[in-house]
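[Help] Beginner question about ligand-bound structures

Sorry if this is basic. My supervisor gave me a protein sequence and a SMILES string for flavin-adenine dinucleotide and asked me to "get the holo structure". I don't really know what that means in practice or what format the answer should be in. Inputs are pasted below exactly as I got them.
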Amino acid sequence: MVKQVAIISGGIIGATAAFYLSYLKGHESVAVTLFDEDTGQATKAASGIISPWLSKRRNKRWYALAKQGAELYQQLVNDAQLSANAYCRTGTIVTRKDHADLLDLYHEAEIKAAQTPAMGNVELLSSAEVKRRMPILTNPPEGVFVSGGARIDGQHFVAELLANAQQENLAVVNQRVSLDGSGRVLTEQGPRQFDRIIVATGAWMHETLKPLGLSLKVRPQKGQLIDLLVDMPASWDNMPVMMPESMSDIIPFNHGKLVVGATHENDGGFDLTPKEAAKNQLFENAQYFIEQLSKAQITDMRVGTRAYTDDFSPFFGILPTMPSILVGGGLGSSGLTTGPMIGYHLAQSILSSHLVDWNHYTKPIGTYIS
Ligand SMILES: Cc1cc2nc3c(=O)[nH]c(=O)nc-3n(C[C@H](O)[C@H](O)[C@H](O)COP(=O)(O)OP(=O)(O)OC[C@H]3O[C@@H](n4cnc5c(N)ncnc54)[C@H](O)[C@@H]3O)c2cc1C
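Answer (accepted):
No worries, everyone starts somewhere. Holo just means with the ligand present. The predicted complex, written as structure tokens, is below.
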């Protein structure tokens, strides 16, 4: 008999899980319905940088998830035949203000790259060499270039994954839903019973799980970024992403689009209003490196809500009190990088009885849910 599966969320976890439930071995045995309300979604607001290897974080489980997440991207792009609008391996340039710190970073990068094929080549670049790779910069810093780094457009990315899965076994329903105490999904059309449910509602997850008598420790964080449209030659397409130390990232897309972000506002909660002060701060950060920018080139401001756990770690697993429900979340500021691995593992666990040990990536979910 075909198993009925619900996914609550069309963010990066939900969309990747939906894709793999339509693609992996055994997908013929499931019919999937994805519910997504969309408001405040972090995935479509995100800057889109996939480059975890030189992070200052020292959390081993997070690093295992992020490192393998970055590797999974290349496979996922092939599996789902994603377009260059969704994913592009442009390389990333990471900077340090202090030259000695940059040399340390370069040596760390060389050691990691020798064990991590997905990182590609690592190069120490002078400011003139950075300028050659990013001709738009008028004040280029020196930096470490990692050729395996990539940028994604979160909105395109999830739309393409879902369109792919819709050709197989996925139905998408754009509405807010809730759970009742017995684990039914309450939709605008009435309650629905599913064999398995994936809940990945990001910053809204505490509210989603509440009717089950559960309390989840996640807090929302507001993130804002600006999009600019700059007149530049087609030969400048595919410039690398720049991640300057303690300043906003600059993510060049093709056809003159530049994304600058993002803010991390702990007191912003679920507020989705774009703020002038953030716009000015992001613009000034970008203008430090690209003097000729003008505010008139700002075409959009995007706002999303990230979800953080107390120990800043993502989590995923099966609810011990209701094993038909699987959860994944708490992705914080690197969720585009870690989210696809979680979506993959959740899908795999529904389709197959052969599972890898999740403790390698996450503490038991009881750490986060009480
Ligand atoms: C400004 C910004 C910049 C970022 N930049 C990067 C970056 O460069 N690199 C990186 O790796 N990460 C980045 N992140 C982090 C990353 O975007 C998030 O961690 C990740 O996208 C979270 O994915 P998610 O699937 O857990 O949640 P989300 O993407 O938030 O998706 C959750 C979805 O569930 C829906 N939902 C909630 N409740 C319900 C309900 N009851 N019924 C139906 N639907 C519901 C929401 O509307 C939403 O669509 C950034 C985040 C922000 C905000």
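A couple of things worth pointing out: Residues 92-148+220-304 form a domain with the D-Amino Acid Oxidase; Chain A, domain 2 fold (CATH 3.30.9.10). The first strand starts at residue 3 and ends at 8. Feel free to follow up in the thread.
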